[in-house]
Amino acid sequence: MQMQQNSQRAIRTLFADLKTCRKRWESLNTDSLKHAQNIVNTVLQLLYIKQLQSWSHVLEDFNSLNSKYQDKVTSQLPDLKEKLNSFLSKIAYQHKKMLIIKQQMEQVVDEAVSNLGVEYLSSLPIFVSFTLSDCSSIMNEIIDMYTVELNLKRTIFNNLLKINDRKEGMLYISCWINEPYINLKRLNDIEELIESEFSS
């Protein structure tokens, strides 16, 4: 009985740690949005300047002024990109912590199977109905969402400076903040399941 309680306690702690990482990720994602928007707005400014230059090729003075303004706007991009990259690095760090939690869960499961018996892996419940395998699978499902989402964020980051129009920029911004690979409904359902299992 003591061994089972130890395993339960360890699993509860790991899910609590995972929730902390998720909340920190969510906060970082919200705070990083303005920096992604700043990059998009700056790139759109540059595209507009280039359009003006193509329309005003006969106005030498205007082109000279435009060129200086373009240089000024362009010089802002490295700093804007670095600010967003700083947030992306912090988000990636939360993901790294999630992967460590995943490894710790594997260790807890292995230890529990060793102490309690292999039947607890997928036959006998370690909680009310959750087996050890259930706990591991649910955690993997959650972390997998964040793994794919992090890859998307990295792709967006690498493409923000390459947008061709406002529509493309807004699509990237929408994907950044809305995080399509993180299924909030499924996460809420899992939260309810976990709360029911762990509180009994």
TrEMBL record:
Highest taxon, organism lineage: Eukaryota
Pfam family, one: CA109-like
InterPro entries documented for this protein: CA109-like (IPR029159), Cyclin-dep_Kinase_2_interact (IPR023250)
Protein name per the record: Uncharacterized protein
